[in-house]
Write a structure and sequence with these properties.
With about 400 residues, this protein is an alpha/beta fold. It contains 16 helices and ten strands. Helix 5 links the parallel strand 3 and strand 4. The structure holds 5-thio-alpha-D-glucopyranose (GLT) and manganese (II) ion.
């Protein structure tokens, strides 16, 4: 075929540092890989053509690091990033690993824990700003319950909002060029996590004091854990102008968070996710958040990185083929039967338009007779994806 599917910086791919630093541990088993130094991870990703990296405060700066050492680490991260042409595109705060957050951070019942979480988030925002990250994500993995009598979700959400509002003011007060994105997930590690879906996170953003500063960071795996359609969820965010970041990966529906390589499952849905991002010319980074299989050694981590990007590039090529396919486009044109006069009538309410619409004669039985060739359309899409078209 002669195609390399080699990523270019202009493809704007990004990886969470935690994805390549993941050591393959799971709730039943110890790590299978040696630790990977975060600065080495940045270098290697940059060399592989990756545009950006996403990171938690503690991916680069362990808890308790003295200030001088913190500054040194940030400086090194910048230097290495510059040398291989990779930048920090998203920063976030780890509010889930330390046992202090065992019952939540912003939504903990303890005022001291909530205050510590807020302090940690401000410090992480500072690091993000120093490294130039324009998006700051809140994945509230521990913000939830197993025991419903333990927390009133209404009170918890109020606390969540208070924290976000506080941090928005912090960003504004410091003059940082940074926006927030809430990352929804239905469960795991908590039995139930607050803001479980893209829709609930989206609604939450509008209740905050600075809704323009807060969007959503949907993750394909989290959406599919609920058995929902990631293409639909992502398009709702696109349409609302609230897609501030994205986490690409793969997942069999209704299971634990499998976090597998982008494109390794749900190929057709992945295709439509890529199609949405490309067709709408979404300007953000194509960030991957998944883990190499536990069966991989240190070398296999980079196969995982390459695989995610290759699958995206191949699917992007399929999107172009889909958009240029005369038979597919012909069926789409046939389905999307317009009507100028009626569309005008429906486009805005007035007494006159309502009256005119009510006076129109429709023949629902005749309308219902139109064949919608979805069998053909889907089969053509399938064959295109299978490479025989
Ligand atoms: C964690 C989680 C991810 C989040 C990361 C950001 S960390 O690995 O599974 O979905 O995006 O905190
Ligand atoms: Mn994620």
């Amino acid at each position: 075929m002669g195609k390399t599917y080699k990523p270019a910086k202009s493809d704007k791919f990004a990886f969470g540092l935690w994805t390549v630093m993941n050591r393959g541990a799971d709730p039943f088993g110890a790590p299978t890989r040696k630790p990977l130094d975060p600065l080495e991870a940045i270098r290697r990703l940059g060399e592989m053509g990756v545009y950006g990296y996403e990171f938690h405060d503690n991916d680069i700066i362990p808890i308790g690091t003295p200030a001088a050492q913190r500054d040194k680490l940030i400086k090194r991260a910048k230097q290495i990033g510059d040398s291989v042409g990779i930048r920090a595109t998203m920063a976030t705060c780890n509010m889930f690993s330390h046992p202090v957050f065992k019952d939540g951070a912003f939504t903990s019942n303890s005022a001291k824990v909530r205050a510590y979480a807020l302090q940690k988030a401000m410090n992480a925002i500072d690091v993000g700003a120093e490294l130039g990250a324009k998006v700051f994500v809140f994945w509230g993995g521990r913000e939830g319950t197993e025991v419903d009598s333990s927390k009133d979700p209404a009170v918890a959400l109020k606390r969540y909002r208070e924290a976000i509002d506080f941090l928005c003011e912090y960003v504004l007060d410091n003059g940082y060029d940074m926006k927030f994105a809430v990352e929804p997930k239905p469960n795991e590690p908590r039995g139930d996590i607050f803001l479980a879906t893209a829709g609930s996170a989206l609604a939450f953003t509008y209740t905050c004091a600075h809704p323009e500063m807060i969007g959503v960071n949907p993750e394909i795996e989290h959406i599919r854990m609920s058995g929902l359609n990631s293409y639909h969820e992502i398009c709702q965010l696109l349409e609302a102008g609230k897609l501030f970041d994205i986490h690409l990966g793969a997942q069999k529906p209704l299971r634990y968070d499998q976090d597998i390589r982008f494109g390794a499952e749900d190929l057709k849905e992945s295709f439509f996710v890529v199609k949405a991002l490309e067709d709408y010319k979404w300007p953000g980074t194509r960030a991957f958040d998944a883990h190499p299989y536990r069966t991989e050694n240190e070398a296999g981590v980079w196969d995982f990185v390459e695989g995610c990007m290759r699958s995206y590039l191949i699917l992007r090529e399929k999107v172009a083929a889909f958009n240029a396919d005369p038979e597919i486009q012909g069926i789409l044109a046939e389905i999307n039967e317009g009507n100028r006069a009626l569309e005008k009538l429906m486009s805005g309410y007035s007494r006159e338009s309502a009256a005119e619409l009510k006076a129109r004669a429709f023949d629902p039985d005749a309308l219902a007779k139109k064949q919608l060739r979805y069998e053909k359309l889907d089969q053509l899409t399938q064959e295109l994806l299978l490479g025989v078209r």
